[in-house]
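In the current project phase, the collection of sequences with tokenised folds has grown. A sample record is quoted in full directly below:
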Amino acid sequence: MNMILAKNIGFCSGVKRIIHLVETMSKGKKKVYYWGALIHNSVELARLNDIGIKEFDGNVKSGENAIVVTRAHGTSKEEVEMLRKKVKVLDGTCPKVIKIHQMVDKAIKEGYRVIVYGNERHAEMKALRKDYENEVKIISDVNSIEGLTMSDDEKLLLISQTTMMKEDFEKIAFALKNKFKNLKVYNTICEETLARQKEAIDIAKSVDVVLVIGGKNSSNTNTLVKIAKEYNTRVFHVEDEKALFPGMFINANTVGVLSGTSTPIYLVKRIIEKCKS
């Protein structure tokens, strides 16, 4: 059985940055915690927990020299201020997510209302909505456009959650341009996410089976699954090697391997070894 690995696999640059940050800080004198799900991968979070880097429960132990790192997907200003009353806080937000907040802030000051293509239950969108509640409208698909109440003469900006699907963003942009005349569009889907989406198409077309490795709560991993299924009927979303079973590979000569941006490379290697055995 031939295994074909995506070139863009394992952690993205933003996840590499935050994992390096917490691991480096944990070697110092401070007790390192993280706020919320640092990244969306339970296997990696379990590894961090094993080396003493745990999720912050809101309480600092007496005499503890602690620091809390905020999640890669972003944290609302209100949450950060709440944390700072208790403990030292370090911003772990991905620079690409920070850029979106800066873009929204600038647009609002210039009189724009902002439409965001995203999943309102995702941490990235929760933080954005909390900070800009009345000025930002989150839509999940092209059908949501009918519910928008903006007037035709308002200045509007369309952007995206960093982990969404390019094809759907383009459909939404097209529909909004036909509905509103004063619309600016900026595709803020992460470039690394877009590269993985393109690879998902190429690999899914050329193999018998596709494995997409990543957390079930990972937006970008779920997007890869959705894309791969458009081109291949045998697509499996696996969180770890325990999810593999022989029936996946019946009559399969080639297996494509993709991963979400929060999936550690050691996990990819473990799954490949299990497949080969």
